[in-house]
Amino acid sequence: MKKYIIYIGILAVGFLFGWVLSGNTSNEETANNPAEMAETNQMWTCSMHPQIMQPEPGDCPICGMDLIPAETSAMGLAADQFKLTENAMALANIQTAVVSEGANRNTEVKLSGTIVENEEANAVQVSYFSGRIEKLNINFTGEKVQKGQLLATVYSPELYAAQQELITAVSLKEIQPALYNAVRNKLKLWKLSDTQINQIENTKKVQENVPIYATFTGTVSEKLVAQGDYIKEGQALLKIANLNTVWANFDVYENQIDLFKKGQEISITTHSNLNKTFKTKVDFIDPVLNANTRTVKLRAVLNNSDQVFKPGMFVEGVVKRTQVLEMKKVLKIPASAVLWTGERSVVYLKTNPDQPVFEMHEVVLANQIGNEYEVIEGLNLGDEIVTNGAFTVDAAAQLQGKKSMMNKDGGKVMTGHEGHMGMVETMTNRDNPTILNERIEVSKAFQNQLKKVFERYIHLKDDLVNDDSEAVIKNALLVLDDLTEIDMKILKDKKSLALWTYLEKELKNATTSISNSTDIKVQRSQFKLLSSYLTSAIEHFGVNKKIYQQYCPMADNNKGAYWLSIKETVVNPYFGQAMLKCGDVKQVIE
Description:
12 helices; conserved putative lor/sdh protein from methanococcus maripaludis s2 fold; single chain; 31% helix
């Protein structure tokens, strides 16, 4: 019996220990399992749309991607710092680089400009007497004229009377030579030649219609009158430009002015002849700064006897820096790292080398040398900054209520439906979640220029639908031309200017990539980016046209892709004839 009592006691003690251990384990599992806790703080977000915050897993309401666990704590981060997920970093292709130091030495400075008429060689053909234009021999602008060429014939009552006076004065020439000379000189003042005057004297006939001859050689740049018009003495008839020499005007930014001097050699290339370089010298630097653009005009004179340069043509100039500071070292950063607001220049600093933690820093820049800026203030040697995807990082800062390009003091964090609606009620593209969808008021002139780009984009889209890669290249080049013709000076407020500066760069990058490839798969991949940024531009600035945004979930290896159309019927540019009807309309942009 004692033996059994001992066995029973051992079993009881064992059960007691087992119960205690199992209870603790259960408590630990419950504590470590948020799904079984009575209360949990776990939130779920989208790697591409961090403004989305939901208390349970599911799909992103914007792009449909699976939600991932959000960071539950921001412990260890300063007030202006924020963190991105590794997945978001990869998808947005965010790249960083360490701030370097280099010698401030001679190097090249690139400038953009346009060809204009040489004002010193321009002339205005005027009438030296009043009358009515009976016949105008110049038919169109751009017509070439030679000195002495007949331009028009004019009926002039004054000249008619003066010719009669001359015929009368000829008969009194011997008696009243002074009167004869006075009448003859009056006709000379009206620019009648000695030959014309002698003809009137010899024939004793009055010319009803008096010819006007060109006093300059050149090209008609503007017609100021029409046949049948009444003109006054001294009135301008034609503007004539001598295009044997032209001016190349370049914009020099305020912080670059001290790099240029009159007499510097400048090498000029044109978009129409990229393989040829034209060398000339800086002829003039405008002493007055344009207060709107913060630039001055730099001018070079070009020989144009071969008519290579056309007024209005875009050109690029390269000037060697003359300012040398041998002993001074300067910090340099890539131009792609800088975001502009109009008043401030900002970059994003990666504050933790091991984690994707960022913070906005304002910087003071000096000169732009090639694709780099010299930094005066705001960064230190060895700082790691974002060089690609800075706008994406800035959007994340805005969404998390941190200091950003447009909000230097930070703001409210948007979560859930509020964040969704605040970011985009109608999102452009899940690969471009960076731009807030808010209509900006701009001029109709700017909208019409943007509309021209959109219309060319539609042709490019149709080429992809037809699987025609060669036509895609041609229309991509035309899209680039239309983008280049958009006049940024029309945009008056800083917000629209900063936004368009960013969008224009991305649009040109995507379009250039399309034009540089003959592989239609590559063209379609870049077309996705082109569609994304063009949609953002249209949503912000408008083009006064009804546009359908369409989406195919199977495009881009089942990642999905958007495009724009002027028709509601879906024709898929990502699959072309292979799967023409795949997709549906996601939104209508009015």
